[in-house]
Amino acid sequence: MLAGINRVGDIEWEVPIGYVPDMRVPGRFFLSRALVETLEEGAVRQLANVATLPGIVKNSLAMPDIHWGYGFPIGGVAAFDMTEGVISPGGVGFDINCGVRLITTPLTEADLAGKKRELIERLFSAVPTGVGAKSTMRVSNKELAGVMVDGARWVVDRGLGTGADLVRCEGEGAMPGADPEAVSAKARQRGVPQLGTLGAGNHFLEVQVAREIVDPEAAKAFGVAEGQVCFMVHCGSRGLGHQVATDHLRTLEGALAKYGIHLPDRQLACAPIDSPEGRAYYGGMVCAANYAWANRQVIMHEVKSVFAQLFGIDYDEMRLIYDVAHNVAKFERHDIDGTSMEVCVHRKGATRAFGPGAPGVPGEYAAVGQPVIIPGSMGTSSYLLHGTVTAMQKTFGSTCHGAGRVLSRSKAKKEVRGKELREHLAGEGILVRAHSDSALAEEAPEAYKPSREVVRVVHEAGLSNIVVRLEPLGVIKG
Prior knowledge:
By secondary structure, the chain is of the alpha+beta class. It starts with 5 loop residues before the first strand and ends with a strand. It has a single domain, classed as tRNA-splicing ligase RtcB (Alpha-Beta Complex). About 30% of the residues lie in helices and about 25% in strands.
């Protein structure tokens, strides 16, 4: 473990005030001894740097998937007072509302026998993937404004889904406060052709089987049974979100002197939440977040259509369990030292994990808590969990979002051969489809921390409890 960091529990660590100059609160992160060797000094420094930002409350936090990012570490969580606090694109990331949704089908693994390869090929054809992928579903500039305001509802209103889908999305598939005027012409231009596309990098569409039920009661509430075939969609706001982040970062960097904000790292560029610059970034970020929810809704519709046609099952027999964001800033009420306060919670590579009875949890899940979806790396297990009271108390209702990288994409490509990886996974019964072998190499399982250990940490820390372990059967890589 790095010098100057204090252990405050079996898997909980503190970065004390003074680790870097001008910290206002301590840093806290959750990591097992097995994962300590993956901890980067740069990521810890970023966690401490976040603690210097104006108006931060309680702690600067990081989940066990912590690794070095832009400004905030990936896996970072921070909440800011609405009066004194700031909003920072570095605390959200460039892929605004990158997120995950999990859908059940009435099929078992045996039902896929003899059809799995055809299924993967049809899915690869149905969902555009890769850098710059364009959709067959084009929207006009006027329609794009509707997408940015209404999110997943815009898609459902056009017959691509049902009202039940919206209930089972975080925030019902849209955040309030969208400001299309805060989205540049270039961002709009990038967004128009990409609705319903997977993109590249770590994005994926995965066919899975529920292999192990850990919490039968919660699994029943979520509607998933052992042996059931499911599919998972992981993607975000595509070029539109990236451009929104890029545009507003420039503006916020230029506004630092105006507000007398001094930063240890300019990647933490920010502005007061209620400043013109802060409001503009928030309005543009919400537009991108809503676009991402619409994007995942379109992809889900296309995948359900493929399953329905290939297996002769009813479209409505496939049920969305939940859709959760992991790159977003939201206004939420939390208990801060015994006082209920509205704060701006930044989650950057971190997922909401609201506990039983918390506001915003769908009524059908209220007794269990919000579904939490933590995907593994390609070829490894993913997990469905539920949020907890402990998360509400310790991490502003937050948990990790995935396994967390340990190898850069360039290093992974040097160490892994995509063709060999594809053949190895096929030998394990996992069919993989991607535009290139190099794209597979970038996302090899060894490029990530082991998902099983990362999830064990949040489970033992009480930040989210395991419900179901899911194993991959086939993967479409972005």
